[in-house]
Structures
1.
Amino acid sequence: MTETKIYLVKTEKNIHLAKASWGFRLFMLYVRLFYKYLYFRKIHLLHLENVPSDAPLMIVSNHQNGACDVLSILLFIRRADKTRKIRSVTRGDVMVHPVGNVIMRWLGIVPAYRIAFEGEASLGKNAPMLEMLEEEILNDGTIILFPEANHQTIRWFGWFSPRYLLVMLEAARKSNFEKEMYLLPSCNHYNAYAGIHDDTLIKFGTPIALSAWYEKYQKQPKATVREINGLVKRQISDLMLNITDLDNYAAIDFLRKTYGVNFARRNSLNPAYLPDKLQADKDLFARLEALKAVDAEKVQKIYDDALQWKEKTQQLGIFDWNVDERPAWKVIWQGMAGLILCPVFILSLIINVLIFGIPKFIHSKIDDINTHCTINIPSAVLVSIPLTFITLFVLSWLLTDSFLAGMLCIASWPLLSIFLCFYYRAGERWVSRVRFLSMSQKTKTECLLLRQRIYHALDRILF
């Protein structure tokens, strides 16, 4: 990337730049440690070198999973000026509560008001926010924005408002179109939406230097906005898994999770490595779409069978891969290992009851699984973890009369949290194996034949 000359824009009014105090940096380090090592198992950062380090920047991303989308970018991008907070924009209605409003503004989050969420009367509140964002850009700041406005509940690229460009282009106008500034398309992707200790992926596209459109924007503003927005949308759509066949979404999503594992391996991709799995899923959907254009009836039959198989696995409480079951003696050995480790599981469950219990109680009242991380992370960081640490330390110290024992108990908590997640999931897999092995031979045969029909049909048309 060529070196960019930066112009410092001076103004007589207060800029209100978002400064990162030492307290803020320590808090973000605490959040980063929890997010990276406990909440997620693995975070994949792809093309981080594409992030401009010292120029005005707006990161524009798809919106798949509530607060995690913001944090995944915010916690891991690198900027030259580390004393500045990175601004992000959220829906105005989530900042209604006074306490939440103060906390979110301290974190650098500003509200945007829209007719669909806050009503037409609230739109007048956007003017100060837009001016603040323009000032951040003019002074080499960074903004994270999600033009879909609301997170999607499926792996699909929704309606994409071009209004984010008005912030950048109005800032360019205030600099007399002399200051270079960048748009950076980005993609968030998850192997699961609602789970804890899963994998996530942040993939950055190619930076777009807005100066190439300055002259055209001054003559044809609307056409220029459409052109730039189209370029950003194409990049994000290419980065992410965008299942556009919404009528068959449930079947396609099920097939990528099941048959998609074999499809990845046959294309020399590792289904356990999220970047490879994302590529395999994109390739699988593209192939299915191409085949549907040639023989829609044949592909639709596969989708119908996939939904039938999905419903059957849910009714029986098994997974697709249980059909390829291990010998019964291995299931017995796994059960014995689980029984031996059960006391450790109970201990880890007791120690982590606050961290998992509070979010679970709130989740029971909310149907949208994509909001779970928005509940999990703040409740853990602000409430559950501090309370757990204090409780563990005090009880250990009182019971043993040893300060060192209290510290060791706190130090063991992260390991026990990770163990709890592994044990719980291993238990789910073991129970599904036992269920399948205990079924009648007739039911097993029905499952095998239905699954084989789907897999063989896909093999014939894809390979």
2.
Amino acid sequence: MLVYQTFLKAARAKLPTVLLYWIIFTLIAFVLSFRAQDEINRHFETASARICIIDNDQSTASRALSDFLSSRHTLVTFDSCDRETLQDNLYYHRVDYVLTIPAGFEEKLFSGEADALVESAKLPDSACGYFIDRQADGYIGTLAAASAAGRSPEDAAAAADRIFQELPEASSVQFEEKSSASHKQMYYFFQYLPYVILMMIMQGLTPVLLAFRKTDIEKRSLCSSIHPNVQNAQIGLGCATFALASWLAFLIPGIFIYGPEQFFSNSGLLCLVNSAVFVLIATAVTLLLGTFPLGGEALSMISNVIGLGMSFLCGVFVPQWYLGDAVLSVSRFLPAYWYIRITNMLAGFSDETLSMHTYRTCIGIQLLFAAAIFAVYLASARFHRRAREG
């Protein structure tokens, strides 16, 4: 096992780089986990949303609608109310809902028009946003009914306020189990695995593989008594050891943060299997990179292109529900898309219902990616070996 031991010694020299990614990931996991817990608590323990109201009518009816929503939610104002600013604030969750009351709102309302009188903006699939839509539509409908009875805008607003004050208070019921809420926290942990594992393995293994592929070292190895197939097997065993160690190092913060009971629950084990399959993909990509004569700067550039490019396109850094159809069409040809698709289903952040059939399909596609990349690695290694021999 001389080659295997030499491989591990060379890999040990790259531990500082790998350790840097591990520390960064651990800090991110802690921060996002606590943030996720706060979001879960806020979602189930409060009924007030952050809303922004743009009143371009400034009439009695529009002010009554604004006061009604403001009394039930937290009103947020911004220095600029242009479309781009409001979209940015929605994206970064500084506001949950934006209501625009156009000019002529009261005139149309009291002339008999009651449909599409206001415009709203909210995050896609936002239950909170749709709930506020129903509140606004209900209040506008009450104003319209009062106006149809011949009441003035002031009397109609007073009647609407009186009706809504007499309604009984509604209590919220949490249908989600505590274990499901904890899986939402684990989603943030496993969300960043593709980028972290790719960078850890590529930055740690590729320089070692390139060192073994140097002409002088390779010729010297061929002169030894160890058969080339045995050497390649020991190098492969060294890669597997390094990848396994990286994966286990990735799991340590998760076990510490969530505890064994949550981390090794049914959903946690499904996430673990999904992550183990992606480790195979990362190892195959690294082996493929190791067949090319790359320098340090070229290796760093290519590693970042692969890691960051796949992460942005497949939903690691930006959730898949924010990505356009064109981007998702491209990302389906990348393995990280199928990994993130599983984590979204397990966390309940996807429109898809979690089923073992879909889970096995996504796992199978990732395994096909790993097999295909490994096949390309074998072909590339044979090509470069023949080129050096010839």
3.
Amino acid sequence: MLNKLIALGLFLGLLVGLGAAATGNPILHAIARESAPLGKLFINAVKMIVIPLVVSVIFASVARLGDIRKLGKIGGMTLAFYWVTLIPAIILGMAVMAFGLRFTPDINMPDVEAASIPKLQSITDFIISLVPPNPFAAAADGAILPLIVFTALFAAAAGTLETERRERMITAAEDVSETLIKLVWWILYTAPIGIFGLIAPATALLGWGLIQSLGVFILCVFIALIIFVALIYLPILFFAAKMGPKRFFKGSMGAASVAFSTTSTAAAIPVSLEETTKNLGVSENIAELLIPLGASMYRPGSALFQGAAIVFLAHIYNVPVALGTAGAVIFATFLVSLTVAPVPSSGVVTMAPALDAIGVPVAGLAFMLGIDRIPDMMRSCVNVLGQITAAVLIDKNQMQ
């Protein structure tokens, strides 16, 4: 129901905005103009929740891993697979979107948004800025990326404590994150009105150009996801696990269908476990460990989507993405994609750290939320295929 209401808010915003742009009707222009504060209020609410949500989720996820030295061969191989494949996903999403931009019309967002772009840093300055001299000041200033680095290091240290102390801290962090997730739901219930307040004024100003650009974005994400599966997962399965594409897709079709229709990898866990063990021959011990782990922290489709979305939003807001800033985007997206919170359109909501890293206005998230249902279905399907690929690969190497 929420997705339908969000789509309705997007449709009405486009209808009013396009009507104002095409006819010049003063009433439609007034509606579009006066609805802008609703959009700003919605974006402020999203920004309000991003920092505490990302920090609490990252802390709980990293700390629960415990002492990395104790994870053993399976844990080490699994994390290595996750980390190694996430980087190509992000880069591929950025590259395909960068190519697709040549097919988008030229549009100019309002100058008030472009004014928020900070001065670009060199690679050296960026690396230095990752370690905040005062993490509380970083949080107050909205510097999310240094705060994420501090949180990850703090959580890794917490993971080495004795079990009782570690579990106490993890439980507290999970309680905080669950409370914040409830708050995110409340905020998302206002999304239809907020998105109307953001889309209507922008569309009244930009007209059909914005609609065409969003269509190109969705197509680029779809193409990039197909390329990623074909160039990363299928060769790994064929050469490292001796499994052909036909058997893999036939054996994982049920789980992929559930993820596609529900946009939830967590909802696909039962089917993933059954198909991975019965159809693909993975041992129950490996499947029961890696499928839930993958559902909680491995979302390559989301990482690819975020890379493409950041390039797209940087383009429409005229923010240059140089080599140093591209590194910042990849690093921020990599960290966040490992710990995406289990909330609706979480791949969109948690893009804020990467947007912050290069100075793209967070208001751009409204465009992504408005069209997110279709990309979310596609990337959720790829997320599940990646989680099953990891289980097949690790199981095969354990047997050797």
4.
Amino acid sequence: MQISRKIIILFAVMLAASCATNKEIVRDNTKTLLKKYRGESNQKIAIIPFMTKSQQKNAELEAFDDEVMDIVFDDKRFQIVERSLVEQITKEWTFSESGMVDEEQRSKIGKLSGAKLILVPIVSGQKNINMRIISVGTGDVLSYVRGNLATPIIAGFSEAPRPTPSKKSSGISPVPAIPSGGGGSIALGGAVNGAITQPGGRDSYTLNIQSSKTVEIRADRTDTSFDPYLELYNNSGGMIASDDDSGEGLNSKIVTGLAPGIYTIVVRAYNTNILGSYRLSVFEAMSQPAPYMGGGGGNLSTFADLLIQLETSINYSAQTSSWRGRRSSWINDVRSAGASNNFQRMKDLVIEFEANILSSSQNGSWVRNSRGNWLNRVRSANSLGELSTLVLECESNILYTAQAGTWRNTRSGWMSRMQSLR
């Protein structure tokens, strides 16, 4: 009977959680966001209105604004900037899902409202919410939370418009016209830098596949304000796949099997009013672990031990909230990749480690300017020497305050061992 009662109580708790409304979820995420904030108290904060990634607004999002305002108002550490002033200042601003606010925008809100902090809430994909507290002075992210709504926000607009189906093809989307000023051709295993230089611009690239393969197509932003969007079409004009944020952060990634033929890859901005640069790369997806390519004065098992040692130096408060649930498995995966000489898997684990360090715990210039390029270099590394150099670079951009106090005494020896692998 006691066990049955526990099961009933557990079921009731789960049922209640599943019945949470969107407003309740927004309130809970706002509370978590404020709980994670460890900055100074008595700060003036500007709360940006909830909106979608493509700058759209509806009645439900306006209701979310009231929920956020109530929670922040109850937290006595903050002084809220009057809403009408914020709406006036931000009327013509543009945001991406990352919540990035450029220096000019931060400066404007700081001068006009006196705010020291900005709270930016975004909805993407109609169910995903992303909330950040950003420092006006430095642009650093001081607190971050990502969550999922219980139900999609009220319909009436589309986050990522798809090409209009052709009348002759019964739902098969036509290949968009080659855009002016962008595109060309790209080979399997190749990469090219590009940029969207006009609103609504689309860069098209031709890809020739000689034999059946599983390919990975990536569009990684090289401009922190840019949010790339990928589309893949076959030679008949039918859309095979599209993607927004399957890569790290706002980067786009498509992994799919392709038969021999000619394909078209389209890169565009998620928000058609945002301009920016990107790096497009196409390579064969690894169905088997990539062989370790050698290089350096050590082995992958030694590297695994050093990577785990680095991870244990990071304070929990400097890592994402979901990392605690994944960390134990990650450590086991690192050890397994080292023991099995799985170099490709080890690169993925290095990227995962870095991705779970909060931006506020890394140098601001690293997050804004260097991280995207670093990710690309990790993916393309083909020796232990290269990978150890990249991990050293990552460590050098982690703030001392984000690491255990004992790390300063350990760091020198750790660096020497990591450098010996080069």
